[in-house]
Write a structure and sequence with these properties.
By secondary structure, the protein is α/β, with parallel strands linked by helices. It contains 15 helices and 16 strands. Bound molecules: adenosine monophosphate.
Length: about 425
């Protein structure tokens, strides 16, 4: 499949080439022709599938570049996502001469007002700030031709939906609407029914399933040894670009400090950090100045960094869908990735819920050479112990042992890594 036969204009094909994309991802080859045809589109796709370009490219071809307010509006739950969408849209807009800008909370209003006054063709926004600006008549949404609702499930989870409804009420009724969501929950389906007109649907990954290319395993360990195990995994395997997730902001700070004290350069990113602190941390991580970024779920969707080799769940998330979103930060755009989860005895319920959601059992592993203080074999009668300790040594499960816990993420790959 090539970008040439999707119906994109030559200047957009130039943009694609200059961004280094050689072939469209499945969501791009599915969505681009549909969006170009003008119909409403629902894309069931996670971040990492190339969905941003899937809506930016055809939308910039469809909209007119006229003065008088943005013609395309993207509403997305986080500032980080705003910035990433703007990055892609700006790269495309350089060729099409469309102007792109973002409005999001946590920063001053004035620069955003100025950018709007200068004129924008595509506006990317978080709901609260957009409503503020619209309420103060700083932005005129009456010319919007295309509305894109990005990460709709996340917006629902985060309670943004009433704001999104208010935004929709400010838009012309005659418009094209595109909706992207990693999961199609009943609430998302209801929104689709209420907001979109005869939408065409494209699913690029089965809903609620992690991207197939990700190798997943859990490392049972006592809660008190999580720091040691995490440090040892990162050092022993020489990991260079790791995203670590914790359940709380406080734990994110503490884990980053612990890793720092062990000589592993790390930064924490979470909702208590100011916008400039988040941008700085992401930037240092992107440039490789720090090897580990420790994050909470609230910011997980916003992290689009090339080449994250490993996602490590220091804590398993309470919401199983968050597991899917977290591990989706690795293995982006067809590359393979690895996701480890540290499993304390109190995390078993979450693990069961996650496995139910993803539809497969995640393999348990030991870290060879790590000195486990406590017995850490999973005390779950449903999950045979596959990692056993023999005379202080760890033995990995052997392929074909036939045990339930020895299956890899449902994709049939061997356990070698
Ligand atoms: P997204 O799902 O939009 O967050 O995109 C995930 C990553 O995939 C981004 O880093 C994009 O630059 C990259 N990407 C998107 N489309 C392609 C493509 N056709 N070929 C290669 N990389 C892509």
């Amino acid at each position: 499949m090539s970008f040439d036969n999707l119906g994109l204009e030559p200047r957009l094909l130039q943009a694609v080439a200059s961004m280094g994309y050689t072939a469209p991802t499945p969501i791009q080859s599915g969505a681009i022709p549909l969006v170009l045809s003008g119909c409403d589109v629902v894309g069931c796709a996670q971040t990492g599938t190339g969905k941003t370009a899937a809506f930016v490219l055809p939308t910039l071809q469809n909209i007119s570049a006229k003065p008088g307010g943005p013609r395309a509006l993207v509403v997305t739950p986080t500032r980080e996502l705003c910035l990433q969408i703007v990055e892609v849209a700006t790269a495309v807009g350089r060729h099409t001469r469309h102007r792109v800008g973002a409005v999001y909370g946590g920063v001053g209003y004035e620069p955003q007002r100025k950018a709007i006054r200068r004129g924008l063709d595509m506006l990317v926004a978080t709901p609260g700030r957009l409503l503020d600006l619209a309420g103060q008549r700083d932005v005129d949404l009456s010319h919007v031709e295309v509305l894109i609702l990005d990460e709709a499930d996340r917006m629902l989870d985060q309670g943004f939906w009433p704001d999104v409804r208010r935004i929709i009420a400010l838009l012309p009724k005659d418009r094209q609407t595109l909706l992207f969501s990693a999961t199609m929950t009943p609430d998302v389906l209801k929104i689709i029914g209420d907001t979109l007109r005869a939408p065409q649907r494209i699913d690029v990954a089965p809903p609620n399933r992690p991207i197939e290319a990700i190798e997943q395993s859990v490392f049972p360990v006592a809660g008190t040894q999580k720091n040691d195990l995490l440090t040892t995994i990162i050092k022993q395997q020489g990991l260079e670009r790791v995203l670590v997730f914790t359940r709380t902001k406080h734990r994110a700070d503490r884990v980053a400090a612990t890793l720092g004290a062990a000589g592993i350069r790390s930064a924490a990113i979470h909702g208590n950090r100011s916008q400039s602190q988040r941008v700085r941390a992401l930037d240092e991580f992107k440039r490789g100045h720090c090897k580990v970024l420790v994050a909470t779920d609230i910011v997980s969707r916003g992290i689009d960094v090339e080449g994250i080799s490993h996602v490590i769940n220091y804590d398993l998330p309470n919401v199983p869908e968050d597991y899917v979103h977290r591990i989706g930060r690795t293995a982006r755009a067809g590359k393979s990735g690895i996701a480890f989860s540290l499993l304390a005895p109190e995390d078993h319920e979450q693990l069961r819920d996650i496995e139910k959601t993803i539809g497969s059992v995640i393999v348990c592993e030991d870290l060879p050479g790590f000195h486990y203080r406590d017995h850490r074999i999973v005390p779950d009668p449903q999950r045979p112990a596959v990692a056993v300790k023999i005379q202080g040594q760890s033995k990995r499960p052997t392929a074909g042992s036939g045990q339930r816990g020895n299956r890899r993420g449902g994709n049939g790959r061997s356990g070698n890594r």
